[in-house]
């Protein structure tokens, strides 16, 4: 057994080394090319003309039913992050009688010279949605991803939106969904790891089934200092003193009815508010008479070492590690994932997952 674990670790590090070499070779090649990627330009123009994404897998949700979809927002250059996620927390797809799927969402970056690599990655992994919308336009990017899900993934029950710099406790999320599938009419005294799930059940049982949005609520003021270019909001853009209560962008869980309602409302505006989490989980829900509710369990932003320490002490659903150092990406994700499996993995049937 010890030899088997040692061999597995050695294999991971060999894969890690090969990935680094290939990644930096390709980035060097791409960034030193003065020629516009003609294949990328043709694919972009064709996709715009046909009102389609540049790359997508129409069979992603071909299963009869998908209980949980992890919608992971990424960028074309975040190759190591996507590889790390596939090998760790997105490697589970069918545990606790919960069938899940994952999808990476990328926006378009003019002249990035990574189209060929992304195209090959998508063919190999079948888990990439490459949109024609600007990668930096997060609100539009998210809305278009939701609209694509409506067409190609109508059989998804719950969606957990997150970003590729996060390590998600997918074991715990599968358990939460498994609970929501069991004795659905009983909302009282429903606990998981000593945390009440009553709010989730009540939202699910509510006749207004579109009011199911759970994350980590934030109450904040618009940034009025123009020196903070990224988050500066003028009074013309948003005149009120406070934003409506909204979900932190690190992650939020919603059902399909909620997602569809937010999507429909968002597409009514030609120029939606550019800060995605504020708009999609705050402004639009307020307009539709509901709000972001608190997701049981917590998340932790910090270093890898801090995250590993917190997992051993608290029930954590997500770790966000910023800023990230590319050369340690795979190892960081792997270490956190091994810790999560050590803490929660005893409840997983070994026959279901051999990752």
TrEMBL record:
GO biological process: protein O-linked glycosylation
Compartments (UniProt record): Golgi apparatus membrane
Family matches, as Pfam families: Galactosyl_T
Keywords, comma-separated and alphabetical: Glycosyltransferase, Golgi apparatus, Membrane, Signal-anchor, Transferase, Transmembrane, Transmembrane helix
GO molecular function: hexosyltransferase activity
Regions crossing the membrane: 12-28
InterPro entries: Glyco_trans_31
GO cellular component, one term: Golgi membrane
EC number: 2.4.1.-
Membrane topology field: Single-pass type II membrane protein
Family: Belongs to the glycosyltransferase 31 family.
Protein known as: Hexosyltransferase
Organism: Adineta steineri
Lineage: Eukaryota, Metazoa, Spiralia, Gnathifera, Rotifera
């Amino acid at each position: 057994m010890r030899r088997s674990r040692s061999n597995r670790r050695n294999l991971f590090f060999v894969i890690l080394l090969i990935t680094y070499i290939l990644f930096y070779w390709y980035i060097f090649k791409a960034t030193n090319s003065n020629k516009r990627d003609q294949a990328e330009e043709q694919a972009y123009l064709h996709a715009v003309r046909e009102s389609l994404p540049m790359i997508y897998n129409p069979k992603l949700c071909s299963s009869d039913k998908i209980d949980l979809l992890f919608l992971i927002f990424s960028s074309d250059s975040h190759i190591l992050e996507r590889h790390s996620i596939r090998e760790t927390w997105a490697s589970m797809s069918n545990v606790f009688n919960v069938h899940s799927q994952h999808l990476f969402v990328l926006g378009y970056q003019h002249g990035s010279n990574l189209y060929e690599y992304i195209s090959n990655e998508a063919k190999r992994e079948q888990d990439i949605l490459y949109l024609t919308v600007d990668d930096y336009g997060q609100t539009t990017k998210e809305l278009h991803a939701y609209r694509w899900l409506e067409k190609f993934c109508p059989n998804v029950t719950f969606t957990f939106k997150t970003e590729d710099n996060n390590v998600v406790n997918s074991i715990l999320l599968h358990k939460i969904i498994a609970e929501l599938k069991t004795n659905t009419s009983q909302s009282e005294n429903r606990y998981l790891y000593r945390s009440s799930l009553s709010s989730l059940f009540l939202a699910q049982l509510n006749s207004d089934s579109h009011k199911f949005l759970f994350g980590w609520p934030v109450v904040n003021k618009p940034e009025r200092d123009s020196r903070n270019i990224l988050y500066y909001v003028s009074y013309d853009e948003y005149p009120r003193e406070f934003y409506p209560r909204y979900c932190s962008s690190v992650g939020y869980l919603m059902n399909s009815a909620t997602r569809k309602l937010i999507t429909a409302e968002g597409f009514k505006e030609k120029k939606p508010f550019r800060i995605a989490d504020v708009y999609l989980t705050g402004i639009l829900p307020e307009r539709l008479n509901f709000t972001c509710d608190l997701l049981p369990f917590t998340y932790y932003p910090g270093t890898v070492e801090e995250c590993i320490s917190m997992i051993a002490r608290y029930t954590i659903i997500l770790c966000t590690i910023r800023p990230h150092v590319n050369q340690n990406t795979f190892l960081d994700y792997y270490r956190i994932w091994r810790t999560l499996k050590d803490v929660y993995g005893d409840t997983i049937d070994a026959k279901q997952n051999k990752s």
